[in-house]
Amino acid sequence: MATPLQFTNLQTLRSCRLCIVCAKSTEAIQIKDNLHLHTKIAGRDVADLPPGARGHDFWLGNFSLHGKSNLSYYVMSLSRQGIQSRATEAAALFTILRPAYSLLVGTCAALGGQGYSCEDVIFGEKALNYEEGNWKIENGAAVFSADAHILKVGGECIEGFVQQAEREDWKYGDFISGCAVRMDAAHILDRVRKTQLRNVGALEMEASGVEALGIIKGVSDMGDERKGLGHWAHYKPAVRNATEATKSFVKWKLQTTIDEKPDISSEPGVILAMGYVENYILKVVQKLLERNKIDAGDGWDQGNPNYHPKANKAVYFDDSRFTVEAIYKEHQMLEVSLPGGSRSIFVRVKGNYVFDLPTTLGSSLSNHPNQVGQVEYFIDILKRRIESHENFIEVIDWDSFIALSEELNG
């Protein structure tokens, strides 16, 4: 059975709308470093993932789009290169994690003589698997004729993005893929360009495995007789350039999409707020309404401020770090038991008020890439759900809590 942590991590990943997929772990590590990502969820700590996916690492991030829009995402890599590996793993993971968008980002080998240089970035919408097809005899020689479905990305045209960007090192081209990078790539690319993809310019190993927003690859070497020469000198710059291009493309592609009012019912902050109100707040209210006062040394009137964390950062309410208990102690709040019903409920009291810090925020959202946004969802739903008790319950911010506590000290 999955642990609470595994369920929380699954919920966090499902709330991320974009998945950036890399073919190699080295690419994923380079990209997460370029994006300054520090929060990692290990596959073994995610509920429902198939056994083969438990070795994955998911690096969490958040793109700030125009206005106040945010796009949560994660960066991950595949366990093996190749079309079959990518297709199988991606299908299993996407079925469980349900990202709205995905991008294949990394490095590739470019075709010489087509205007590409090492460290350029190639954006693509089409990919063909050169290993699906038939061998034929032409002029007495065996020739492989690719016969594959060309995958196309729907939506706005990547070519249009490249044109408007006016970057000489950003190129638009198609990809062909196989289970291994071929030393005869120039011949294969030339044949495919003449017969099926006129704009083909790059060879790599994963692109045709699954449809996505697109393919963004930095050129780390050339797919001809020069392949491998100077590869490592260009590898990191190629990944860095692909990362920069990805950020620009995501903001261009999704800034209008994110403006559409999304369905937030599955957001972790919303789910937490619903459970928090039903399983705690309303039960406390019921017990308080059943009694005029509670025997806690001194009498106190009914009132229940609920306050959200400083700067809306859930980490401040992470009970595992004893931060909540420290806050209660610092502000001299007395722990009181509310009897009645099937079980008693413990609350914190100061003066004429009952206070509560929702520790569920810290335990569930402190690793979320957009924890501030999720706390905002939590607050919004919480305020809506307690409207019928607005004369009895108040949601206050951190500064208001400090001011009220100081007032009660007097």
Can you walk through the features of this model?
The chain has 410 residues and is α/β, with parallel strands linked by helices. It has 2 domains: 4-259, Rossmann fold (3-Layer(aba) Sandwich), CATH 3.40.50; 268-409, no CATH class. Helix content is 36%, strand content 24%. The chain contains 11 helices and 19 strands. A hairpin with a 2-residue loop joins strand 8 (133-138) and strand 9. It is elongated, with a radius of gyration of 27 Å. 39% of the residues are buried.
Layout of helices and strands:
Elements: H1 4-14, E1 18-22, H2 25-34, E2 39-42, E3 57-64, E4 70-77, H3 83-97, E5 101-110, E6 121-124, E7 126-129, E8 133-138, E9 141-146, E10 151-152, H4 158-165, E11 170-172, E12 174-177, H5 185-195, E13 200-204, E14 214-222, H6 231-259, H7 268-289, E15 304-307, H8 323-330, E16 334-338, E17 345-350, E18 353-355, H9 359-365, H10 371-385, E19 393-396, H11 398-409
